[in-house]
Amino acid sequence: MIEFRAVTKRFEDGTIAVDELDLTVEAGTITVFVGPSGCGKTTSLRMVNRMIDPTSGTILVDGKDVLTVDPPTLRRGIGYVIQQAGLFPHRTVLDNVATVPLLSGWDRRKARTRAAELLEIVGLDPAFGKRYPAQLSGGQQQRVGVARALAADPPVLLMDEPFSAVDPVVREGLQDELLRLQAELDKTIVFVTHDIDEALKLGERVAVFQTGGHLAQYAKPAELLSAPANDFVASFVGRDRGYRTLTFLHADVPVHPVDTAKLGQRVAVTDWTLVVDDQDRPKGWLSGVDGEIEVSDQDLIAGGSLYDGSTLRGALDAALSSPSALGVTVDDNGAVVGVVRADDVIKALAKARAAGEVPK
Amino acid sequence: MGGWLFDPAHWSGPTGIPVRLLEHLGYTLMTLLIAAVIAIPLGAFVGHTGKGGFVVVGLSNALRALPTTAVLILVVLWAGLGDFPVYVALVLLAIPPIMAGTYAGIRAVDPVTVDAARGVGMRESGVLLKVEIPNALPLIYGGFRGAALQVVATATIAAYTGAGGLGRLVFDGLALQEFGQMLAGAVLVALLAVLVDLGFAGLQRLTVSPGLRPVGTGGKT
What we know:
The structure holds two protein chains of two kinds. Chain A folds into two domains: 2-247, Rossmann fold, CATH 3.40.50; 260-353, CBS-domain (Roll), CATH 3.10.580. Chain A has helices spanning 41-48, 71-76, 93-97, 99-103, 108-121, 138-150, 168-185, 196-202, 221-226, 231-237, 241-245, 312-321, 342-354, and strands at 2-10, 16-25, 30-34, 56-61, 64-65, 78-82, 156-160, 188-193, 205-210, 214-219, 260-262, 266-268, 273-276, 282-286, 292-294, 326-330, 336-341. By secondary structure, chain A is of the alpha/beta class. Chain A has a six-stranded mixed sheet with strand order 6-7-8-3-9-10, with helices on both faces. In chain A, strands 2-1-4-5 form a four-stranded antiparallel sheet, covered by helices on one side. The mean pLDDT of chain A is 89. Chain A contains 13 helices and 17 strands. Mean pLDDT of chain B is 89; it is low at 217-221. In chain B, helix 2 runs parallel beside helix 5 (83-107), helix 3 (53-65) packs antiparallel against helix 5 and helix 7 runs antiparallel to helix 9 (179-207). Chain B has one domain (16-210): Orthogonal Bundle (MetI-like fold). Chain A binds chain B through residues 49, 51, 72-76, 80, 82-92, 99-100, 103-104, 132-138, 148-149, and chain B through 110, 112-113, 115-123, 126, 131, 134-135, 208-212, 215, 218-221.
């Protein structure tokens, strides 16, 4: 657990980076600090491991005032991941990961064995261990950065915009990986980003910082979307927040049957028909035609996104993106179960709201 | 004219070419050692703390402007003949490029890397010795090899005050009007400069991390 108690940071030039911050980061959660540049989110993070010391106030990590601990000792007990990874260019990947164990006095062999384990944990082939950072892609470097931070198994992990320098596709992969890792490792993670989508995706709790170092709101993602504390939060979480709220709602949407046909089959197509393969996995749509046809690949109209039964957002998107306006629902094997309709999603939302499941 | 250089009589005895070469190499290596011991810690300290950069630049420029021969004569007048004045003059010559190279090398280390070094819990000495200096090595070697070339060339003036080295060939040749001997001295100095530089290039290859070499294929720079 990390507690900020009335923490203020005023820089020498007089700017107030963090203003009277009171906030508690619960153990075992991912807490995201988000906000525009100059809002004090990175300064707040860096005060936890004393890369910056506060002007006034107290920061406690697991009940211990950080100002009472010698900074290098404190930092060895707190994982630290930064933008562009900050790997040591002159050391191999393996030795980069082994840095903190070696600083903490482990013998070299034990540190390297541990480092090799960590490369696997973050999804890198241990063969990468012999390479140097310059030989890795940005995404791979960032994985190594995470491995280095985890090497001594610290309970707390500080991540300062770790994924903002990689391209969007890789970033999404790294985010999913972080969520998977966290499910296994159960660390107390503070994650700083300026990207609200990243914040809403990763954070169990999200702290929105406002320019001038004020904490504007500290809440669960669904609550930020449905009940922003002020205009700043409302505009920062964005215009699609009504739609995004659906991400956090898990409600039953009625699944309707749908006409299906297999490739090569002769069928009379009167209405929208879903073409499936031998395992009943969706291939595409046929629109209504006159008379019988033999179903071939050329007739298919590409489908929209698939709904896996998770959130209302997925259901609505499946319906909206489908050429037939019918969102295809699949089971765990990818086989077609039926279809959902957009109006059913809206009804489900109304029901959830009536039941008080949508935070106000 | 090349006859003097290849005359076997000049390749033996206490004043033969091998002895002069070794003396010259001795002055060079000793000078570089002393200069490095002074200049690398100074450059590293200033580079690491970021304080006093103007001192490094000012001192380097002032030292570079000193005429080496004048320094040599002044020290001879003060301390008498011998190796000491030679070392003072040559060390003052070697300090600026080594100090500037070290300072520039440490300033050029990516601030993100240095931030990470502190962030994982290295002490300031660790940040300097384990991260900044290893990453600054290519530029430190650059300054050092520049200094080495200057010192090899300039160590000829040792003979001016009666000391040894390849300068003997040049000064004795001049005194005796033996231009073959002078030429031999000049050629040998140039040859030694190339060999010394090759030696340090080899040392650089052995001591600089492969991770700092420019990446060719299959990697991102």
